[in-house]
Amino acid sequence: MRRLLIADAALAALLALHVADHVARQPADEQLGLVASLPGLLGTVAVFVSLVFVARGTKHAAQFAGVVGLATALGFVAVHLAPHWSMFSDPYEDRYLDAGSWIEMLAALACGLWVAAEAIRVCRATAALPPAPARPAG
């Protein structure tokens, strides 16, 4: 579970950097509106929630982190890599961004995949463990 915690913490840090990058490098008039930003904002909250779950060793934390990691990676593809398709689109190709913005965004995408992969590893390892013996009542 330690590797999953490291991957999840890295994803949380990269998402914080991604939000800071948006604030610092996008003029206010080019920012997505609140409604269009909701998937990204909720996704960021979900990553921090999954980080807390994994850190506490909550039951099903790995499953939750895996879903959130994969959803984060897919979200980056849909919002920043795909051509404009909806009000949620913010294609990097249409912006004049430097390599730093691109590297940070692609690192966050890759980190989401890393979290999903680590979560699968934890789930498989947990499934391979023999069941714990029943505790006597009393």
Largest sheet: none
Number of domains: 1
Q: What portion of residues belong to β-strands?
A: under 5%
Please, what is the average pLDDT? 90
| Low-confidence spans | none
The termini sit apart by: 32 Å
* Helix run count: 4
- Topology as a string of helices (H) and strands (E): HHHH
The radius of gyration is 18 Å
Tell me about this structure.
This protein is an all-alpha fold. It has one domain (2-126). Helices cover 71% and strands 0% of the residues. The radius of gyration is 18 Å and the shape is elongated.
Topology overview:
Elements: H1 2-25, H2 34-56, H3 61-81, H4 99-128
Helix pairs in contact: 1-2, 1-4, 2-3, 3-4
What features would you highlight for this structure?
single chain, 138 residues, mainly alpha, 4 helices, elongated
Quick summary:
The chain has 138 residues and is an all-alpha fold.
